[in-house]
Design goal:
3-stranded mixed sheet; signal; membrane; 19 helices; 3 domains; Alkaline Phosphatase, subunit A; Alkaline_phosphatase_core_sf; 32% helix; 10-stranded mixed sheet; binds 2-acetamido-2-deoxy-beta-D-glucopyranose; binds zinc ion; disordered C terminus; magnesium; alpha/beta
């Protein structure tokens, strides 16, 4: 069976190298059954099914924590085996510190458009040749983002995959797909923050969204539904069983031990600022947020819990207060800067910090020099996603620009020899970057303006769906040109089109634009970064963190954690031997295949 498999792989490989893929031979394969493959011992994906004869009964296995653990460990083994074959041994280098940057909703189209936006915003030139800071990272890979129950995922399921190593259902946080509304313990999984704290590392989370929102919540909470951010959101049948996300942050580990908690979300935390000012009105379901009904002030409780810190814990509510914190002394910092999310950076309100400000403060609190055990930090650029949901292309791209600044700040403030930095997205969006605009054309401009005869000008950034449909649909005051259903772009004023709340066109009417289902990119820098290679299931990233950081389930994968920071020469010898064996095996099995 093994020989057959190797032959097949070599056959496909040599075919792809030598000539165009032979579709007729592919057609002779059995179509793979749906994903209900195996738990122990099996690989997943269609390649796995090659090993199964048609007589073998299909075993239906739940894709639970154990299943995804096996998938993650297999990917780790595969990646390491490939590295050894290529005689690349730096995969075993260990990271004292790990920073995971998540651009929520930052798919590839958004990265490319965001890069051009950055160049044009900074007036660096045409824009296309600009680099985002993570373009220069030495390693990249692609993550498959689907949830256990959805082809196109949400942030709760994907963040749980990245931070716990377990893919789960759409909407689930910190619990696997066996989750239960009636049992909060059911399917609970630990996060990279639990692993880090157990290893004596400092931990922190930074986001531009509410601190209780899906992505940050997946690092500390275990709950059936991401929407249960306040006590008032937990439905009757789950009251007394599931504790709301805000309470979990201050009551339970790992949240109650975080050294850094920075973001929005005063309202679900029970610390509303009634005087808050918002000068630009943004729309969307996410602009409203639940209120607590239990009269608890969770930030105040958090302060009391840290009352015995040798340096008093810091609770801040504005940029000014944040910058005054003595980050080299303070061990616990909470900053809640907004009742809801922090405002889109393109319309930043007085007193709001940037993601860069928060990232710098976080690293200041987490970094404690040579004698410390290091840290794990999540930084989320959380509103790229929300901008896209409202078809606010300009607001979304400006969030990418600010996200890039935060990554620059992290690079500037960390030692690359000891810090692994991952940059990725949880999922993509239904946004396209299209047309044939001329080189240097405004990325938020028209795709075909140079074609003077074209009666219908359209934009380079267009959405497949969303509320932008309504804004662009022709009506009596703004009629369509010829047979087109859309009003011509030149009927919008320049002021309208440059407003942060301008919506790009969406082809299908939805109140809320949707996510996209294609793979997302992962960029990696620092020790262990070359574990990020090829295409993998998104939950693998937790295993990269685990193996590189010597925390959690993959820390004993091989002896590399006990050997310390550099790969030992022993690895090289083993690597060469296995390379030789692999070469001989290939020669032997390749012969009959040709
Ligand atoms: C702080 O220390 C005092 C005195 O040791 C102790 O009684 C109290 O429980 C501690 N508080 C917390 C939140 O740990
Ligand atoms: C990072 O450092 C470079 C070089 O000193 C500097 O030009 C850049 O502005 C810094 N960026 C941030 C975001 O700190
Ligand atoms: C509609 O298209 C024609 C060309 O076919 C053009 O002359 C005219 O200006 C367009 N009208 C608007 C409102 O853009
Ligand atoms: C037509 O569209 C414009 C611009 O989107 C809008 O302001 C106006 O209210 C619409 N008119 C009608 C009658 O729907
Ligand atoms: Zn979203």
């Amino acid at each position: 069976m093994k020989v057959f498999c190797i032959q097949f792989v070599l056959l496909v490989f040599s075919q792809s190298l030598l000539r165009a893929p032979d579709l007729t031979s592919a057609a002779t394969l059995q179509p793979p059954p749906l994903i209900q493959t195996l738990s122990d011992g099996g690989d997943i994906g269609p390649q796995f099914n090659l090993e199964q004869s048609s007589e073998t009964p299909q075993v239906i296995v739940v894709e639970d924590a154990k299943f995804w653990h096996n998938v993650g460990m297999r990917q780790l083994k595969k990646t390491i085996d490939n590295a050894k074959k290529a005689k690349e041994y730096s995969y075993a280098n260990k990271a004292k510190n790990i920073i995971v940057f998540v651009g929520d909703g930052m798919g590839i189209a958004t990265i490319s458009a965001g890069r051009i936006y950055k160049g044009q915003y900074l007036k660096h030139g045409n824009g296309e040749e600009e680099t985002l800071i993570f373009d220069d990272f030495p390693n990249t890979g692609m993550a498959k983002t689907y949830n256990v129950d959805k082809q196109v995922p949400d942030s709760a399921g994907t963040a749980t995959a990245m931070f716990t190593g377990v893919k789960t259902d759409y909407g689930a946080i910190g619990v696997d797909s066996t989750r239960s509304e009636l049992n909060a313990e059911q399917g609970r999984v630990e996060s990279i923050m639990d692993w880090a704290q157990r290893a004596g590392k400092r931990t922190g989370i930074v986001t531009t969204t509410r601190i209780t929102h899906a992505t940050p919540a997946s690092t500390y909470a275990h709950i059936y539904d991401r929407d249960w951010e306040c006590d008032t959101e937990v439905p009757a049948q789950s009251v007394g069983i599931h504790v709301d996300i805000a309470r979990q942050l201050v009551e339970n580990a790992p949240g109650n031990k975080f050294n850094v908690i920075l973001g929005g979300g005063r309202k679900p935390m029970g610390a509303l600022n009634p005087q808050e000012v918002q000068t630009v009105k943004f729309e969307g379901p996410t602009e409203t947020i639940c209120a607590r009904n239990d009269q608890r002030n969770l930030p105040k409780e958090w302060l009391q819990k840290h009352a015995n810190d040798s340096v008093p814990a810091a609770l801040v509510h504005s940029r000014e207060e944040l910058l005054k914190v003595d980050v080299k002394q303070v061990d616990h910092l909470m900053g809640l800067f907004r009742n809801n999310h922090i405002t889109y950076s393109i319309a930043r309100q007085a007193g709001e910090p940037s993601l860069q400000d928060m990232t710098e403060a976080a690293i200041g609190v987490l970094e404690r020099g040579q004698t410390s055990s290091g840290y794990v930090l999540l930084v989320e650029g959380g509103r790229i996603d929300q901008g896209h949901h409202m078809n606010y292309a300009r607001a979304a791209l400006h969030e990418v620009y600010e996200f890039d600044l935060a990554i620059q700040a992290a690079l500037n403030n960390t030692n690359p020899e000891e810090t692994l930095i991952l940059v990725t997205a949880d999922h993509s969006h239904a946004v396209t970057f299209n047309g044939y605009p001329l080189r240097g054309n405004d990325i938020l401009g028209s795709a075909n303006l140079h074609k003077a005869k074209d009666p219908m000008v359209y934009e380079t950034i267009t959405y497949a769906n969303g509320p932008g449909y309504f804004e662009h649909l022709a009506n009596e005051t703004r009629p369509a040109n010829s047979s087109n259903v859309w009003k011509p772009l030149n009927l919008f004023t320049q002021e309208e089109r440059t407003s942060p709340t301008y919506r790009n066109l969406a082809a299908f009417a939805l109140k809320d634009e949707t996510h996209g289902g294609e793979d997302v990119a992962v960029f990696a820098h620092g020790p262990g970064s070359n574990l990020v290679r090829g295409v993998f299931e998104q939950n693998y990233l937790a295993y990269v963190v685990s193996y590189a950081g010597c925390i959690g389930p993959a820390k004993d994968f091989d002896g590399s954690c006990s050997r310390g920071y550099a790969a030992s020469p022993g690895d090289k010898i083993t690597g060469s031997v296995s390379l030789l064996v692999a070469a001989i095996v290939s020669l032997l099995v390749a012969a009959p295949a040709t």
